[in-house]
Amino acid sequence: MPKETTNNNLSWPYLKLCAIFVMFMMLLFSTRLEAAECAPFPESKWWKNLSHESVSNFVTNKHGGNWSEYLEKWEKQYDIVKTAYMNNSYVAANDGQAQIAGVMLRIHLYKTGRRVEITRCLAEKQMAKLENTGSYNLD
Description:
Layout: H1 8-34, H2 52-63, H3 67-86, E1 90-92, E2 99-101, H4 102-133
Antiparallel strand pairs: 1-2
C-alpha cells in the first residue's frame, strides 16, 4: 500500500500570508478603535467657531455638564428644520433677518443632523471618560 505524503512546504507560504493578513487586520482594527474620534462639526455661517472644545465648554458652563439637555435642544432644532423643509417652508437664521429655504434649507437640515450626531458622539465619549475615571459631577 503506498504511503501518503503531504507537501507541507506548499502550505507554509499560504499560512504565513494568512498570519500576516490577520496581524495587519488586528493592528488596523485596534488602531482605529484607539483613534476613534468624533467627526468635526460641519462649517456653517450661522455656527461661528464651532469645535469639540467650544461645545464641551458650553455644555460644562451653561448646562452644568448635562449633555442630554444640550443634545435635546439640537434634536428639537433638527425637528424644526426638518418640518420646515418637508412643508416647503423656511426657518429664520440666528440674526432674525435672513430666511433659510429651498436648497439652502436642505443643506442646513443635513448640517443640523450632523451636528446632532457629532454632539451625541461627544456626549458618549464624555460618559465613557467619566466611567473610566470614576468621577461624576452629581451636583
